[in-house]
Amino acid sequence: MAEIIKMPRMSDTMEEGNIVAWHKKEGDKVSPGDLLAEIETDKATMDFESLWEGTLLHIAIKEGVVPVEGLIAVIGKPGEDWKAQIGGGEAIPIAIGTNGQSKAAEPAPKASAPAAEPEPVAEVAPASAPLPAPTSDGGRVKASPLAKSIAKESGIDIAALHGSGDGGRIVRKDVEAAMDNKGAAPAAAPSAPAIAPTATVPSFNFAGGEAFEEKAVSQMRKAIARRLSESKFTAPHFYLTMEINMDSAVALRPKLNELAAPVKISFNDIIIKAAAVALRKHPAVNSSWLGDKIRYNQHINIGVAVAVDDGLLVPVVKHADMKSLSAINQEVKVMAEKARVKKLQPEEMTGNTFTISNLGMFGIEEFTGIINPPDACILAVGAIIQKPIVKGGEIVIGNMMKVTLSCDHRVVDGATGSEFLQTLKAILEEPMRLLV
After folding, report:
1. Rounded to 5 degrees, what are φ and ψ at 339?
2. In terms of Cα–Cα distance, which of 146, 148, 150 is closest to 342?
């Protein structure tokens, strides 16, 4: 019996997946462990490997969005009547292809009549679309989704590039290198009458002349919109802001970097460690609302918000209170890079009990964050700013940093959140405590 392959749930929040590319063609032999396709989830682009042995009899959707449990392929023995198997049993959810049209498997004809082969329908590209680039891989350019996106936005002909990735795959740095060389000719435009150059400056009709660009919402952006809307409108947020004198941390950091060389400890690493130590003393902040009960977590897993092209990912530093500053630095660095190339695994983005979002590197002095479920709090960290302060009765220049704690009032009260911030302030103003 043929295996009906459905869209798997590749993350806990995934509701649909976007098939980016197939690595097998209809008629190819397939073995367990073979890479079948690349699927973009709400968190990353992941490899979908075969669990089955046989022949790839049918690909339901070449590229496009498919709901979880929607039909994507059929694997079986050559000549098997897989159409009858689909039509005679359970209903298969409809898949939405890249052209926006709904597609579903047709029911098998009745046994009394011979099965008629449907006439092939040629898929016609819009007149304005460029012709697909010829390749040696079944007509598909071997490139990462991010590389394709950058190339499209920059007018780079991706088929003309040489890939430096595995198996000649074109990756982001290949496209960026082509952009830097600007000797490469721009992508050919659709055939149009040539316009002779003129010496006059082209005129633009600004009266009513409006332009815009629309892009399809990525799976990641859909998930961000859904989760943060649920958080903002179901969890009653309130905010606590405190200013912290970072003079001692600024003075200590060069000494730490001498001890930890070649690792370069960042202020973000110090803040993560300090927050983890403070959470150990305030378990009510390290908690989750579960409807009819509150979970007080005894482990401390800190999510670190990382900005990527499509939005925001939150890799998680597990047991952060038990790790050294250099270990936190290396772990965050590796996971941040994996987040940017969409290679984070689901287990690296789950299990958070508290989240930190730091916009200080962008010069933002103060902001508020939306709580990242299932956490009860998120800490928004601003830039370290030199400003006049009063110290010992005198006006001096201090390195000041503002932090804002967003709290779920169902779990954390004002006094509880304030006590946590007082402990965090004490640690960051005397960071040698982290080494004790």
Report:
1. -65, -40
2. 146
* Lookup: tokens for 422: 């007082």
Residue 411 has pLDDT above 50, yes or no: yes
How confident is the model over 18-77, as pLDDT tens digits?
Answer: 888 899 888 898 888 888 888 888 767 788 888 888 899 889 888 888 888 889 899 988
CA distance 331 to 338: 11
Catalytic residue among 23, 58, 282, 409: 409
Identify the pLDDT of residue 185: 44
DSSP letters, 189-216, are PPP-------SSPPP---SS-------P
Vertex 308 angle, CA 307 and 310, to 5°: 120
Q: What is the pLDDT of residues 251-287, one digit of tens each?
A: 999 999 998 888 899 999 999 999 999 999 999 999 9
Residue of 156, 108, 154 whose CA lies nearest to 133: 156
23 is catalytic: no
Give the lowest-confidence range in 90-104, 165-179, 270-284, 399-413.
Answer: 90-104
Give the span between the Cα atoms of 81 and 102, in whole angstroms.
Answer: 23
pLDDT band at 87 (very low <50, low <70, confident <90, very high): low
Number of Cβ within 10 Å of residue 283's Cβ equals 13
Q: Assign 160 to helix, strand or coil.
A: helix
Q: Which helix (H) or strand (E) holds 127?
A: none
Helix extents (H) in 88-171? 145-154
The Cα 8–Cα 37 span in angstroms is: 12
Pick from 261, 181, 239, 169: nearest CA to 408: 239
Q: Which long-range contacts (CB under 8 A, 24 or more apart) does 319-327 make?
A: 320/272, 320/273, 320/275, 320/276, 321/273, 321/276, 321/277, 321/279, 321/280, 323/273, 325/256, 325/260, 325/265, 325/269, 325/270, 325/273, 325/434, 326/260, 326/263, 326/265
HSE-up (13 A, CA, CB side) for residue 272: 33
State whether the Cα torsion 255-259-261-263 is positive or negative.
negative
**pTM for the predicted model, two decimal places:** 0.59
SS3 29: strand
ω into 374 cis (within 30 of 0): yes
What average pLDDT does the chain have?
A: 80
